[in-house]
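RETRY 2/3 - previous attempt timed out on the joint model. Re-submitting the same 1202-residue input unchanged.
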Amino acid sequence: MDKEILEHGFSWNRRRFLSTMSLGIGSVALGSLLMPNLFKNGGIEEEAFTPGIPHFAPKAKRVIYLFQNGAPSQQELFDYKPKLREMTGQEIPPSVRGNQRLTGMTANQSSFPLVGSFVDFKQYGNSRAWVSDLMPYTAKIVDELCIVRSMYTEAINHDPALTFLQTGSQQGNRPSMGAWLSYGLGNENKNLPAFTVLLSRGIGNGQGVYSKLWSNGFLDSVHQGVQFSKGEDPVLYLKDPDGMSRKDRREMLDNLSELNELSYKEFGDPEIATRIKQYEMAYRMQTAVPEVMDLSKEPDDIVKLYGPDCLVPGTYAANCLLARKLSENGVRFVQLYHQGWDQHGNLPFEIAKQAKDVDQASAALVIDLKQRGLLDETLVIWGGEFGRTSYTQGRLTEDNYGRDHHPRCFTVWMAGGGIKPGMVYGETDELGYNIARDPVHVHDFQATVLNQLGLDHEKLIFKHLGRRYRLTDVSGKVIKDLIA
Amino acid sequence: MNTKLRAFAEQVLVVLNVFILFLLIFLHKLTVPYWLQPAGRMHPLVLHFPIVLLMLAIGMEVYRIANRNTNLTSFYKNFSGGLLLAGILFTGITVIMGLFLSREEGYGGDTLEWHKWTGAAVFFIASVIYWVRNKLWYSVTASWFFAVLMMLTLIVTGHYGATLTHGEDFIMQPIYANIKKPSVPIEQAIVYEHVVQPILENKCVSCHNPNKLKGELALTDSIALAKGGKTGKLFVPGNPDISLLLERVHLPLEEEKHMPPEGKPQLTREEITLLTLWIRGDAKFSQKVIDIAEGDSLRILATAILKPEDKDEKYDFSAADETTVAKLNNDYRTIAPVAKGSPALDVSIYNRDLYSTKQLDELDAIKKQVVSVSLNKLPVKDEDLKSVSRFENLRRLDLNFTDVTEKGLDALTALKHLHTLSLSGTKLSFAGLKDKIANLKSLKTLSVWNTGLTPEDVAQLKNAYRGISFIEGFKDDGKDTLKLNPPQVKNDEMVFASAIPVQLFHPVRGVQIRFTLDGTEPDSIHSPVFDNTTIIDKKTTVKAKAFKDGWYSSDAVTFDFLKNSFVPDSVVLLQPLNSVHQAEGAKTFFNKKLGAIGANNPAWANFWAGVRKNDMELVAMFNQPVTISSYGLHYMLETTTGIYPPGLVEVWGGENESRVKLLTTIKPVMPEPGGKPTLETLEASFKPQSVSCLKIIVKPHVEKDRRFLVLIDEMFLN
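RETRY 2/3 succeeded.
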């Protein structure tokens, strides 16, 4: 009898175990209904990414990034701080400065006197955005702009900050934003590269730009940025040598391509296929590039809109005009760099010159895109790699001062491409030193830009050396408030 | 249960009944002292106990009556009765607290009345149950009846109470929110009704409604809104800065008067902006969105809000065959899916020379799927648009800088979905256009910059078609006069041997360049106009300025043309150059390459040969003797970085290196420190001298043991 009871006990237990377990599994199943991605580990892989096709319908098809290299001072351009001006000459309160690391250029300074903007600000447009007197043309278009005053970055020196903004990593050797876009969206016009680069420099203290900034990193080398320079030969080695006809070139390319095919079959190196494609594109670029680079047909109105310098190759204004032409011709990402914004000293003089260089043409680009009905699908971005300090670097005199690097806050503006127009986003504290509201990290900014182009920054990935890489590395969120 | 305690509790119950009845009758005269108000405010906290107790007890009571004749333990009977009593007492306390709370400011209206009376009813019904529960007539049916009655009243009370706290439709709100409200067409949308009121509805009305008049304020409709509340009017039309509504919104969150109160969903930045803009625009209640000036922030924001969400537009056609699409793609025609998984296709065509309508006609297989076509800058004719009209699902069509006119638009009327059309830079004319636009029913955006339309024409169109956004652009109205940039020089080399044509150039069309050769400032009347015929044969400073009607004249620009008649056959440096200013070594001085300001910049530094620690000593040899009568050098001056003129220059000449004699010395006047960096020449003449060998010694400037850098790029022998 005892045995039977014991057995009964066991079987009852087994039954209970099974029924309880089924209940348990059922409740897990119920719970998982609320967490759709719970068991989808590695789902990214299944949802294979097709290069060249956006994840969702994009607002913007193209980007023009007006990079202000050297870090323009937000206090003199877009971030109006009357309190800072009032407190000029006073020491920055330790509570504001906190424990921020400083660059070697000011870390040993014995005092950190605050300095307000030497130039006045006014409110413009329906958005009543504050813009300094150094930017009269930009001021006229504030209702087209979304001014983000609360950008912040992690790097404190030019090269890492620039590299971080462009590639999502401070160390470099990752693909640049333009390369990611080229990879994600492909060429719109097969006669021009998807990613082009234009350089110019102002008279202000300059910082270098290096070709690593438009690198394709580990992506296929078709995605590398192509630099268009001023002068007779905008794209190096594109021109046929004297005496070579287009027919000769064609024959030569056909034969070369046959040879390349052979070696591709033998080695299977994808770079060979890339090379074949590149030669073909270069051949078509031979006719497309001169057409794009020819500014002589631009009407007088356009010259007046951008300012007369737009006809002087190599200037910022000319590059803005070219950027419009390239973008109009389906170039996905036009990257401009304008050097000379690194005002450690002599800021009032230099920044006035720098602002004059870029103000009219930047505004003109936005107006020009708009009047062609292209602004809604072209995202224009204006900004540097970080901001500048509220305290002066070096000696503060009656009419002169400088500002050091400041990663904690800086201003960028965006226009078009489905970004909310006529908006000022984010706020810094009264001294313009820390962000008071709505911080935007560099990765957030990148995620937002990708989002506008129909790309999910968490899905635009490339597996390299056993790791999946993204432009936004492992963080970043789309700032929904910026999107129209 | 202790019988004594029970008897006491029953007496308390009687007291409560009377007290509550009294309170209910004289409620309007009741003023709750401030120290008792917290008791009232504990109503929402306490009310949960009686609910649970009553529900449990009433269940047990029904069971007890139903099993009256069986052997229920006395413990059960006792416990059930005690539980019911405790529940009723708690109910009584809760009712009293609720009555106190109802006297506080901010409560009123129908919902409160219903809550009050049903709540009291629960208490009275439960009391009755307690008193009749042991009567003989209290049958099972009766017990069921009372139980159900009480439960129903309890539920109704709870519902009204929750409505008071959380607002109407609190429970179903997520469901309602998910059901898309039919969006108002933008043409009919009213700013207040469709933009402002929904904000208040979402964030304010749960406390400010006729039922819960917090601060004696309701925000449910325009009349109540205009009336304001206890503190006064909500806003001063046109003046958001002093409007109470915004003051409350902008107060710091910790502030007691901040609205919505801490812990409630706050207004977003956008909502605050909208309210501000609406008040600034005089807080009109009947203004339509499209009546606001285009470009006004209020209109932009309102439009964005009212815009039906088009996240990944749904298309009612199926995807085209992938291989067909791939086949139709070629070097000059790009066809790409709008997005992954979307059947829609974008088409862009490039290259003016290769364009023909065939490129459009070939797309017949995918005519359903094409939603956007870009034909910018192609020679598209009006009749070609018939080929475009086959794309029945077309949304966007770019025809900037094509040859189409308004006549071509007829073909587009078949496109029922076309919302964006770009016609900038075309020969569009106003006549006829006005009526043709009416046929493009779904059009939302039309670009008409740089066409035959005048600003007045566009204004007329804007008036006629309120729902369409017309994009104009920049037109030079002559108001903004710009300054020309200075002329440029196109000569490859500025150093010449005998004579050189001056090649000046200006990038802007129609610019007049005027110049002088004597160092004076060119003017627009007397100075000669540059016409490419000027040839100079001696060292000359050309000053030039650009002029054009409608522009300010440029700054004057100076070009130095420098003459060097003799290039030595060999040059040897006897002492080293500064390591970072090597330029082309000994070849630097007669290579016709001039340096620019900014010696520390590598790209520019190449042409500058410099010394500081030692003298610059060079020997120049000629195979055939030459007769020279002057020597010159070109140097940089940048005192701020310590780049100074040479302290002393000695020029020695003769037949060969060992038989040279001093021809001349130059001792420049040292400049004052400071000043702008410039490029300068030094020159000295002497009696004509036949030489085969020249020895030139340049000594850096020395001041109090400090030696200054000398930078030289060219030398001149004439």
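Residues 647 and 701 of chain B are 4 Å apart (CA to CA). Closing ticket.
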